[in-house]
Design the sequence.
């Protein structure tokens, strides 16, 4: 009977902590930034990195599949109706104003993992900022909604986007870099194969403190050896 009760207790314990695996080795499964606070040891940066890498890989894989399909359409003289519809959907998604497939491909960027990790860590304080904890917002993305329920309010008048998950935050960040005209030079750098440290110089006005921002990102990339994840 004691063994039976012990077994039940053990199962309940494991279920209640199913989002945290092998804490001693700093390997945890997290979908919400608020759960990063559960990591109290010195490995919190590593946990942040290990949490985001599979998220980034998943989104990159999806973009790669889209790119491959779009590239395959370049080789066709006549497109089927469903292929034309797919292209129209992609033109809209990536905010492409022309009907040129090359213009679409130029916007379907896949930033280096180290670049994404560096910005996420700097903008969110390794997942511990207010906008991260309350909104899963890892990149300081502003919100046009002036609603403290649907956005995170900081100070008297600043509002930041809220996301359902960390994955949503990363996906919106990549799409912002892909769509917005401010990042045309960054997209050019990514498409030409520049590494993350070179790309930092092409971020333009992502931050109001441009030079300081570039220095901090470069330091984060180097100090944490993030390029090994590219």
Sequence:
């Amino acid at each position: 009977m004691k063994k039976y009760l012990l077994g039940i207790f053990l199962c309940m314990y494991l279920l209640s902590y199913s989002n945290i695996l092998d804490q001693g080795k700093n390997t945890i499964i997290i979908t919400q930034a608020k759960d990063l606070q559960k990591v109290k040891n010195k490995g919190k940066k590593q946990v942040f990195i290990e949490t985001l890498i599979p998220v980034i890989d998943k989104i990159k894989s999806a973009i790669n599949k889209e790119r491959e399909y779009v590239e395959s359409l370049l080789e066709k003289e006549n497109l089927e109706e469903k292929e034309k519809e797919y292209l129209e959907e992609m033109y809209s998604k990536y905010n492409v104003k022309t009907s040129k497939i090359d213009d679409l491909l130029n916007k379907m960027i896949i930033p280096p993992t180290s670049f994404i990790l560096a910005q996420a860590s700097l903008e969110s304080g390794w997942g511990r900022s207010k906008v991260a904890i309350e909104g899963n917002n890892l990149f300081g993305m502003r919100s046009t909604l002036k609603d403290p329920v649907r956005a995170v309010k900081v100070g008297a008048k600043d509002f930041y986007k809220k996301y359902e998950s960390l994955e949503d935050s990363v996906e919106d960040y990549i799409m912002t870099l892909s769509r917005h005209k401010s990042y045309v030079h960054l997209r050019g750098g990514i498409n030409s194969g520049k590494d993350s440290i070179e790309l930092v110089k092409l971020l333009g006005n992502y931050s109001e403190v441009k030079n300081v921002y570039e220095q901090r990102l470069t330091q984060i990339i180097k100090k944490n050896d993030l390029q090994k994840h590219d």
About this structure: The chain has ten helices and two strands. The two ends are 53 Å apart (CA to CA). Residues 111 and 190 are 6 Å apart (CA to CA). The first helix runs from residue 2 to 16.
